[in-house]
Design brief:
It is built from ten helices and eight strands. With about 250 residues, it is of the alpha/beta class. Bound molecules: cytidine-5'-monophosphate.
């Protein structure tokens, strides 16, 4: 990654690592959760696993004491999103996503529903996805946003998110500095690749240490852990790298 990294002046907490459970069956996901044991506390359930295994599997993870990021990226009219977020909040998940470009009314509806329907033990927090990392300048133009660069577009959506009461935004490490200039919202960063890991289809990647130094509050890591022959070792290596970054040993 080519951008300069700098630690916050004030102490920043080591970001939790959400392991992405990108599987098509609950059994496959259960196997990796079992393997990671007490080392794996935070998990991301996305569209594939949710469509395959549904609410009962998410509730199973919550009942095991895991902290869940339900990444379903809602984008609909405010009333519909309100209803969907209410159901998610009742499940006891920690984080959920909606698209920032659903507009202020939709974002506020999501925040309202999360607040109203969260249980007493877990307040469900809403994250706004700024711009999918799969989209480039050409895509922006093709959807009628030719006036903006990708980075300007991300910043604009982060500002909108900031005025809507959401807890945080999802962006790549490459946009973290620009986003953090315009908002103090929490940031969740996917596309994390330890130095030695294969990038696969991720283009806008950063190492765990780089993302931490740039100010990420939460990290999402999938294949570098789930497809490693020794997933426990892979997770512990990332957690160790983050702790060492936090104490200034890496930097
Ligand atoms: O395996 P890998 O570490 O690439 O997994 C990243 C996870 O983060 C996937 O579940 C992917 O859907 C998700 N994600 C992403 N980029 C975004 C938002 C979510 O890679 N902008």
């Amino acid at each position: 990654m080519g951008c300069e990294v700098m630690m916050d002046e004030h102490t920043q907490a080591v970001p939790p690592v959400f392991v992405a459970l990108d599987y098509s069956t609950a059994d496959e996901a259960r196997r990796i959760v079992e393997k990671l044991g007490n080392n794996g506390i935070h998990y991301k359930v996305g569209l594939q696993l949710y469509v395959a295994a549904g609410r009962s599997f998410v509730e199973e993870l919550v009942d095991m004491g895991k902290q869940i990021f339900l990444d379903l990226k809602f984008h609909d009219i405010p009333n519909t999103v309100y209803g969907a977020v209410a159901e998610v909040a009742k499940m006891g998940v920690q984080l959920l996503t909606v698209h920032a470009n659903g507009g202020k009314g939709m974002l506020q509806a999501a925040v309202d529903a999360a607040h109203t329907y969260s249980g007493s033990s877990t307040e469900t927090r809403v994250l706004a996805v700024t711009l999918l990392t799969s989209l480039n300048q050409y895509d922006l133009e093709s959807i009628g946003c030719s006036a903006n660069s990708v980075s300007d577009h991300v910043v604009r959506l982060a500002k909108l998110a900031d005025t809507s009461g959401v807890y945080g935004v999802v962006c790549s490490a490459h946009e973290l500095a620009a986003v953090r200039k315009v908002t103090t919202l929490k940031t969740l960063v996917p596309g994390i690749r330890p130095k030695e890991a294969c990038h696969a289809d991720q283009a806008r990647v950063a190492t765990p240490s780089q993302a931490f130094q740039l100010g990420a509050n939460y990290l999402v890591v999938g294949r570098p852990i789930t497809q490693d022959p020794d997933p426990v070792r892979a997770l512990l290596a990332i957690q160790t790298e983050l702790s060492r970054t936090g104490t200034g040993e890496i930097g």
